[in-house]
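Give me the fold.
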Amino acid sequence: MTKAIVAKIDLGFVQFDGLMLPDGSYAIGVSQIAELIGFSNEHSSRDIKALLGKDFQFAKVSSELNNKAVNTLTIKEFSLLLIELTAAGYPVARALASVFAEEAIDRRYDTAFGKKVSESERNQILAQRMKRLLARRAWTDLLQDRHIQCYGTKPTPKQFKDWTVRVNQVLFSRNHFNCDRDNMQSEEQRTIEMFENMAIRRAGQNPQANPAALLELALDTF
């Protein structure tokens, strides 16, 4: 049984306990992954194993914080898991995989060109992206839940696209941002976040309204 050293890993929008094993390699506990990504902690080990394949085996690790050994993944395994979770439709995993990949390339360029970027600056970038993601997810989850409530089925991808285009047309006089909110300016970012928060508020005030009606109720505010 291996005992790990624990340190807080700061991602800007959240911190979690990272593990360093005696050989100097890094790992992350399954419970930390579940909290980070947002899936059920109760069955997290089973679900992760299913995604990584029947031959995958967890390493059992105890730490300074917990003498009881827990299931962990190496950093490489965690990276592979993010890819699998992205394919399975987990938006937080997709955002993390994208940001981690981009940051790795950015660091190479920064080194080559002698540019100094602090960890605080990198964390601010990640925190802003996750803030946008979580606000958008709350709004799209609301639309989906209300569609199921009203019609008994999930909305189609075309319906989500049409709703997004409608919002962009009213708020920004354009259809889209090339599917990437990083293409928005700061003021546009603030506007879309205000809209999403207003949409959630209108949903609470109008519990029977269908998704299209909720959309218009929120847009009327702007």
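Residues 206 and 214 are 8 Å apart (CA to CA).
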